[in-house]
Specification:
The complex is a heterodimer. Chain A is mainly α. Chain A is 66% helix and 6% strand. Chain A contains 16 helices and three strands. In chain A, strands 2-1-3 form a three-stranded antiparallel sheet. Chain A starts with a helix and ends with a helix. The chains are: A mainly alpha, B mainly alpha.
């Protein structure tokens, strides 16, 4: 009898151990993925922070003004970036004092040279490989920090492509998003928590906000396209159309988090204010909102982070346009960082791959720091009642 | 002067005027010689005059905007600014005139604020209505060209072949939905076991310290933008799938449905785990203790007591996760194929609803071409499915809450 019980117990404990092992395996799988994902992105993206440069003599004179390729000596014409050479005539116009001089300077190399130096797949001919090897041994080729990646806009030449215009577009879009979503979201939450009577309308609004939070982001893009662009005539691919679309998408997040932080404030605060003769709005403005501020801020940051990584609705309103220069206003064609990642990911030239990964690293760094900031704010400023 | 400049001048003009109105209204109270007690604080009278200043000006702007949008008449910019200025001045003058000790300024502005708050709250309803109308309106145009029945039951989707009147049989959406469900099923096969088991471990087995690390780490998965997942699926996972498949002697396309499905599943893990975790933890401690006191092991308690009790919440999480997977766009746009393909083999390229929507709207077709309009037809079905899933999950979760709270 006792033997049977013992056997039974053994079986049950084994089952317990198995179950626990399954559970921890699941968690470990998620963790392993996270590590694999980040190491993959970092190993793909870090090389883009370096860019091959070649030390060449650049001739600033009338010949190179007419045909920019002649600005460098013949053996270098293939291995130096054509896109960079193309900017020379403009550069000379801006700096007439350079005319007639020959300067030995570090010049951005062609994308294939860059990839060859980084030992990645490339299409550099054997002849030029030898030339690069030779130059490298003489110290005339180097991998330098890629400042251009941060100071240049998009380009059809991978070696010249940078994220500046996308970053500025992102800033525009996010400013608009927050300018619309934050006041409207907070006002809605204040109305629902502090003012609204419990009637049909209020319930409808509440159900509606929950539904809005669950609608796929791409459908917000259809809304933006049909309403903002086709009906109100906002320019296609402008920061305005994108910002408004994202604002509507961020709205539910801000409303829900603001409501939660308003709910957390005890009624004694409100009753004390009413007791002193404050009106409802005075109570809210002077007492409830300041106390709810950390929660509202946290919610807005989380909403902002989500808007920042959103791509699908922006593609629909046309924000994947090729934008080499930073947009000058809210109405100019603009692109955002995630959309830039999308367009680069679709490029057939391999050299774009590392730039895509590098742009992803930039995006992830910003997003993780925003989320970290939100967690910090919640931990340090939130009061427990 | 374009509309952007005009609205800038309008707002830039209104702001200093408002400040002026506020000071005038307030001064009238503080400089008053009357002995009577004022009903409200001086600042309230300031705001009161701002309301009187801004309302007529905004009304003029609204009217001009409506006239312009309706295409009836476009008010010349200078005329508009002058009329708005006159209206503002007249309103302000009237407001200042009404400021008297007996005026209940606080109540008046309270009413205005309440109105503004209601207006803000209605924005979310307008957004929903906007989405529904925008989609239905264009979808109707699409279903005028293509019969709804053919759209729902057709098995061939080839909008490129559809030209002019020849749309018969070209817009059958079954292969597209087949791809969508295939990717969704793969994603759920990854996300549900991993998410649920992680939630059980975090809620029942983990120490507080471990929990404080593991939970935010899982949430990082939800914070990664979908475009990043898409890149990862297309560049890293897809080639891996192809390599594995050929290692076991199978052929896989680079645009296979498996890679985006797997990556989407990983993206969805935190939705399942954090919702399930909340639900499991909200089960009363007494149930756990009652079960353990009967001599069950932890896993028996979890399987026989906690999970059945948490089932409604877990089902709700499951439904929300499905609707998330159905509407997910970037991962499939970047990693799944464009070719509609009706197959059971996840290693073949398939396409999804969201891919076709993006493809139809980012191409260079005319806006009223059947292909562009088909995006709205697909969007309508997607909206419909998501809303139903969401309503069911809200209902289920509410029942669960009522049971335990």
């Amino acid at each position: 009898m006792s033997l049977q019980i013992n056997a039974n117990m053994k079986r049950r404990y084994a089952a317990e151990k198995r179950f626990k092992a399954y559970a921890i395996t699941a968690l470990a799988l998620a963790g392993a993925f996270l590590i694999f994902f980040f190491s993959d992105m970092i190993s793909k993206g870090l090389p883009a922070l370096q860019q091959a440069e070649i030390l060449v003599d650049v001739h600033y004179n009338d010949t190179s003004m007419k045909s920019y390729r002649k600005a460098v000596d013949k053996p270098f014409r293939i291995i130096v970036s054509r896109g960079w050479l193309r900017t020379l005539p403009l550069h000379m116009e801006d700096h007439p004092e350079l005319m007639g001089t020959t300067k030995s300077q570090w010049v951005i190399a062609n994308a294939d040279v860059d990839q060859y130096l980084k030992e990645k797949p490339h299409r550099l001919k054997k002849k030029y490989q030898k030339q690069i090897d030779h130059l490298y041994s003489e110290g005339k080729v180097r991998l330098a920090f890629n400042t251009g990646f941060f100071t240049r806009g998009d380009s059809k030449m991978p070696e010249l492509a940078g994220i500046k215009s996308a970053v500025i577009g992102s800033i525009y879009v996010l400013l608009l998003t927050i300018a619309f979503a934050l006041p409207i979201g907070v006002m809605t939450a204040v109305y629902l928590e502090e003012f609204a009577p419990d009637n049909r309308l209020t319930q409808t609004i509440e159900v509606n906000i929950n539904n809005l939070a669950a609608i796929p982001s791409i459908l917000f893009g259809l809304l933006g396209l049909a309403i903002f662009i086709n009906f109100f005539g906002a320019p296609r691919s402008s920061a305005l159309a994108g910002g408004l679309t994202l604002a509507l998408m961020t709205l539910p997040i801000i409303i829900i988090t603001t409501r939660a932080s308003l709910k957390a404030i005890p009624d004694s605060i409100r009753e004390a204010a009413f007791g002193l003769g404050a009106s409802r709005w005075q109570t809210v403005w002077h007492h409830v909102l300041p106390l709810a501020m950390p929660g509202i801020l946290t919610g807005s940051i989380i909403g902002l982070a989500q808007a920042m990584g959103e791509t699908a609705p922006l593609l629909i309103v046309g924000m994947m346009a090729y934008v080499p220069d930073a947009p000058g206003s809210m109405l100019d064609a603009a692109t955002v960082l995630p959309a830039q990642i999308y367009t680069w990911a679709g490029e057939s030239i391999r050299a774009y791959e590392e730039r895509t990964a590098a742009a992803i690293l930039v995006l992830l760094t910003v997003l993780l720091s925003l989320n970290g900031l939100a967690v910090y704010l919640r931990k340090h400023f939130e009061k427990r009642w | 002067m374009n509309i952007a400049d005009l609205s800038f001048y309008f707002v830039a003009g209104l702001l200093p005027l408002s400040v002026m109105a506020w000071m005038l209204g307030r001064n009238k109270v503080t400089k008053a010689t009357t002995r009577e007690r004022w009903n409200s604080r001086p600042g309230h009278y300031g705001w009161y005059s701002i309301v009187w200043l801004a309302t007529p000006a905004l009304a003029v702007a609204l009217l001009a905007g409506l006239l312009h949008l309706a295409g009836l008449y476009t008010v010349p910019a200078t005329t508009f600014l002058i009329i708005a200025l006159i209206a503002a001045a007249a309103g302000c003058w009237q407001g200042l005139r009404m400021i008297q000790p007996s005026l209940r300024a606080r109540d008046s502005i309270e009413k205005v604020i309440r109105g503004l708050l209601i207006a803000a709250a209605l924005t979310s309803i307008l957004t929903t209505i906007g989405i529904v109308i925008a989609i239905i309106f264009e979808a109707i145009k699409f279903f005028e060209i293509v019969s709804f029945w053919e759209f729902i039951t057709g098995t061939q989707w080839s909008p490129d072949a559809a030209s002019g009147d020849n749309v018969h049989g070209m817009f059958g959406s079954i292969p597209i939905f087949a791809g969508t469900f295939m990717v969704t099923i793969i994603a759920m096969l990854v996300a549900v076991p991993v998410g649920l088991l992680s939630a059980i471990f975090i809620a029942e087995y983990a120490t507080d310290g471990f929990r404080n690390v593991a939970k935010p780490a899982l949430e990082v998965l939800a914070g990664i933008p979908t475009v990043v997942y898409g890149f990862f699926a297309a560049i890293t996972v897809s080639p891996l799938v192809v390599k594995f498949a050929s290692a076991v002697g199978l052929h896989a396309d680079y645009t296979n449905a498996l890679a985006p499905g797997l990556v989407m599943g990983i993206m969805i893990i935190p939705f399942i785990s954090s919702l399930s975790d909340d639900v499991i933890r909200s089960i009363p401690q007494s149930m756990r203790e009652g079960s353990l006191a009967l001599g069950t092991t932890m896993s028996e308690t979890v399987k026989q007591v906690l999970l059945p009790a948490a089932l409604p919440g877990i089902v709700a999480a499951f439904l929300l996760a499905i609707s998330r997977a159905l509407g997910e766009t970037m991962i499939v746009v970047m990693a799944a194929g464009l070719r509609p393909n009706l197959t059971w083999n996840p290693l073949e390229g398939m396409t999804t609803v969201t891919v076709r929507i993006v493809d139809a709207l980012t191409g260079d077709q005319a806006f009223d071409s059947p292909e562009t309009l088909s995006a709205f037809g697909l969007g309508l079905v997607l909206l419909f499915i998501t809303l139903i899933l969401n309503v069911i999950s809200i209902y289920v979760i509410r029942r669960f809450r009522q049971h335990y709270e």
